[in-house]
Amino acid sequence: MSYVDEVINQIKKENPSEPEFHQTVTEVLKSIEPAVLEKEEEYRRDALLERLTNPERQIKFRVPWVNDEGEVEVNTGYRVQFNSAIGPVKGGLRFHPSVNLGIIKFLGFEQIFKNSLTGLPIGGAKGGSNFDPKGKSDREVMTFCQNFMTELYKYINADRDVPAGDIGVGAREIGYLFGQYKKITGQFEGVLTGKGLTYGGSLARTEATGYGLLYFTDTLLKNEDISIKDKDIIVSGAGNVAIYAIEKAKQLGGNPITASDSTGWVYDPEGIDLKLLKEIKEVRRGRMYDYAAERPSAEYHEGKGVWTVDGDIALPCATQNEIDLNDAKALVDNDVIAVCEGANMPSTIDATNYFLDNDVLFGPAKAANAGGVAVSALEMTQNSERIHWTFEQVDDMLKNIMVNIFNNISNAADKYNKPKNFVVGANIHGFEQVADAMQSQGIV
Ligand code: GLU
Description:
By secondary structure, the protein is of the alpha/beta class. It has 17 helices and 13 strands. The strands form three sheets. Strands 1-2-4-3-5 form a five-stranded mixed sheet, with helices on both faces. α12 (325-333) links the parallel β11 and β12 (338-340). α2 (19-38) crosses α17 and α8 (205-222) crosses α9 (240-251). The protein is globular and about 65 Å long. The relative contact order is 0.13. The mean pLDDT is 98. The structure holds glutamic acid. Glutamic acid binds next to β3 and α15.
């Protein structure tokens, strides 16, 4: 059995009931196999892959809090500090009922390679809770965030671990978390990113993941002499990533025609009305049917089905495993040109392989959505220097980072004889930096 297969089997055996973690470990290790083979003796001797797939530290804690009715509720909090070889660990916090240890480990493992691809000095981590902010009052969200931070603060600081947002954690939650950290520690430091602009946040951080996704997609298409102009773009999701992907897609001349949330999706052939979508999602915290009710050109569909829409480019920006093999087949039947992932691991392994086998240009999440964490790292730099860059400065840096990511992963794919296989390119390029740093630092 190959070294890679041995480690995958061991991970599955030692971490039962963590299917999403098995999925990412399998996807990453299988695709880096050619690079591992070149140094197999050294890596086996130093148990490099075993160390890479086992988090440095995983913290699980209870979060008791009192709701508006005066009742005590108890949620579970997590922080997995996966790998600090190339810098202080960094990654978002997800508040969603589906969160469990396996989900956080999958996200933390992906984050190692994503952060490495940015070229910035940040290791990989992820955290969160099964708390559901949906339907909670502001006061309840604040109370929960304060109690969450009352435990988490022991394990984080600006040079050690810097959390940020993810699903269910936006500017409001980051504000409450930061306030509590400052109150407990007495330190005003860049311990979280995605902060508000009045207390250390970076311009363009809100837009970064969505804009970065489009800079990446545009670069990938240009490399094939294809223009994004007038292309119909199928977007899933209606959160931070989707909204700013739609905004940048429109600025580049594309036509985003769908958006979705957990209850349904809209098809809007005239192009998504961004102002209305922002008002409903960012201000009213409403649902997609509210959008359809106010937009005559939009059709509302209950449940899933957004991938059956005929479009040129697909940008999954909702959540993991939202594109299965059947969805991939529907997209290929409709001659989709490119699929670039805004969410983390939105395509199953079967769906990814189907895209690659059918020559769809496929931008994997850890490359395509790295713009968010990249600007988070720029926020850390600004905090350390106690300065603020302009929107244009940050946006220019983001653009450069996304173009570099594309060039680096494309070169890595070529080097290992898998031209245009950006999955292999991203995993290998991300892995090489981390492996080198780990080997240089000894068995730790
Ligand atoms: N949650 C985002 C991601 O998946 C951003 C993390 C960060 O900014 O630290 O990359």
